[in-house]
Each structure stands twice: as structure tokens, then as C-alpha cells.
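Appendix B, record 7
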Amino acid sequence: MLEFLLTLAISLIPVGSGLAVMVYQQDRKLTENARISLQEAIYSVDLSLDRLHAITTNALMLTSKPCAEIKVSLIEQVAQTQYLRSLALSHKHQVYCTSLPGYVENRALYGDTHTPLQLVFDSPSTLDSAILTYQLEQDGFSAVATAYAEQLRNELRAFQDGLTLLIEIGDTYIWADGDARSLSRPSQSEYFHQAVSQKYGYVIKAGYANGYSANEARQSMIMVLPSLVLIGIITGAVIYWALFRRGARGGTAANLR
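C-alpha cells (predicted):
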């Protein structure tokens, strides 16, 4: 009986060790993936906003001209740029030229220059859309670019590995499948990381949903456990033969002499 228990204990060593290594490797993998994905997301969103910044800067350079001369340029820029929704110019907070035909949009959409990047919901002309606004000001003139926030969602959807990424802009936020109008935020409780864009001040939060790591561990265990059990059985058999069967044969041979 003692021989059996000792053999069983030895057989379980590779199984337990293998499972411990698997859990450790998974922990490191998820931690590293969250950290790297967060930095890559900051880089990708910054690039997207760099394009919006360049467009707004070019529009600001047109503020010295009357609207009749530059309106066509604003319209063409919007038509040629994916996700760009509108461009508007203002003087002392009064919009005097816009790429949008027929009217000047609600001033509330344009925010203030202290927080040039804003996320706006339910604007008068796009009731179901999330709108990203970016504003620059110089010498009392302002240029405001608005873009569909779907571009941010598409940047986040590029990370299809179970990690949930959420962008906070001021008091509002957006992620791949929802935004601040949703009933609740997505779960990011496991391996949580966050970082702030040094260029534009928004925050990206990254994390896995509650229970994600346990589910991953179960899936990995289903794949790995049969191999570990086989190794354990072989190990136990070899040890049993080496310690007990061989020892027993040696003792019998000594008695015959």
C-alpha cells in the first residue's frame, strides 16, 4: 500500500508542475498582452487624431478669408476624408462658415478651446451617432472639425483577443461595442491597465472581463491535461519499476546465493 501511495505521489508531480507552469505562463501572457495592446491602442488613436489635427490646422489658416471664397474648399476636404463629418470656422465664438449645407450647426457641438477634443452624443443632425469634435483657436478665430466616432471604434476593434479597450474623453467614453449612453460600462476587472495620451489628453483603459482568465485556464487545461496525465503515468511506472520491482528482484537474487 505504501508503495502504491508513493508511486501515486510521484506520478502527480509532473501533472501539478505542468499545471502550475501553464497558469504562470497564462498570467504573464495576459499581463503582457494588456500592457502592449494599451500602448499600441494609444499609438493608433493618436495617429487617427493627428489626421484630424492636421485638417483642423489647415482650416484655421483659411479664417482670414471670407466664407464665399473658402466654403468650397471646406466641402471638398470633408468629401475627400473618411469619417470627417464637417468643418466650421468661427470668430469670437460665432460660426460664420461651415461645410454643412443650409444651416449653421448648434453651437453646443463645438465645445470650448480649453478641452479641444470632445466626444458628443445626439447632435441635432445625427441623433443616433457619436461625434468627435476637435477645435483649435488663434487670434479670436476658431476652426472646428467634427468626425464620426466610429473611427475610434474601428481602431479598438483591431484588438480581437478578448481584451476590452475603452477610451475616456473628459466625462464621456466609448468602446468597440458601446459608449456612455449604454446602461453600464464593460467589465475590465482582470489585468487592468490604463494610460493617458500625451498628445491629446484622452485616457485608454484596458482589461479583461471578469472570469476571462478562469475560462482561458479551463480551455488550456482541457488541451494540456491529457498529456500531463500520460507523462505522470509513465513517470510513476518507471519509478515503481526502478525502486520496487527492481529492488525486489535484487533481494530475491541475494537470498538465492
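Remarks on this record: Residues 252-256 have pLDDT under 50 and may be disordered. The two ends are 29 Å apart (CA to CA).
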